[in-house]
Design a protein that fits this description.
Elements lengths: L1 H13 L5 H8 L10 H9 L8 H7 L4 H7 L4 H9 L17 E8 H6 L23 E8 L7 E9 L2 E4 L9
Antiparallel strand pairs: 1-2, 2-3, 3-4
Helix pairs in contact: 1-2, 5-6
């Protein structure tokens, strides 16, 4: 019980915009079944494809906190992203598949892999080249597309990262460098 209370105090102090439920969810220590496992990222994204999915609620769960952003990016980019990305997740905002898009494509990497030039970098938008120097190592990161079965093109997103025990979306970070 003391661990829970201490974690809630820490999370509350750092993230005043979180609800009680979000704080409780963040207070538990993620088990090995969650930490950085790519399948969980796919499972989370799969929820967007479920019939009747509450896309606004699912999107709201992807909202990063300042702590999340600082876990992935160094200054001065982190502060720029905090200023620009967090407001994008206004109440009611939603991402999700378009009409007939019932398939999911993902490409996974770590920030280390992107920084080191791993082959998977070809799956990520070219803009990431501009922010590699600001990325912190050790963070699982994904790009994904909602698409129609059998098609290559789809509705693409980037910057899904696993930080602080959950998946958050920090899209197109290079835009803040322009």
């Amino acid at each position: 019980m003391p661990r829970l209370v201490n974690n809630m105090i820490r999370v509350c102090a750092a993230n005043r915009q979180l609800s009680l439920l979000e704080m409780v969810a963040m207070s538990r220590k993620p088990g090995p079944e969650v930490l950085g496992r790519e399948k969980n990222g796919e499972a989370f994204l799969g929820a967007f494809l479920e019939p009747g999915a509450d896309l606004a609620a699912l999107t709201a769960r992807l909202k990063p906190t300042p702590e999340d952003i600082r876990t992935v990016y160094k200054e001065p980019l982190a502060s720029l992203l905090i200023e620009k990305v967090i407001p994008m997740f206004a109440p009611g905002v939603k991402i999700g598949p378009g009409e007939g898009q019932s398939a999911l494509w993902v490409s996974r990497a770590t920030t280390d892999g992107l920084i080191e030039g791993a082959a998977v970098r070809r799956d990520f938008p070219g803009g990431y080249e501009k922010v590699l120097a600001y990325m912190k190592p050790g963070v699982p990161i994904m790009v994904f597309k909602f698409r129609k079965p059998g098609e290559e093109l789809g509705l693409a997103f980037d910057g899904l990262v696993f930080v602080n025990g959950r998946w958050v979306l920090i899209p197109k970070p290079w835009r803040e460098m322009e």
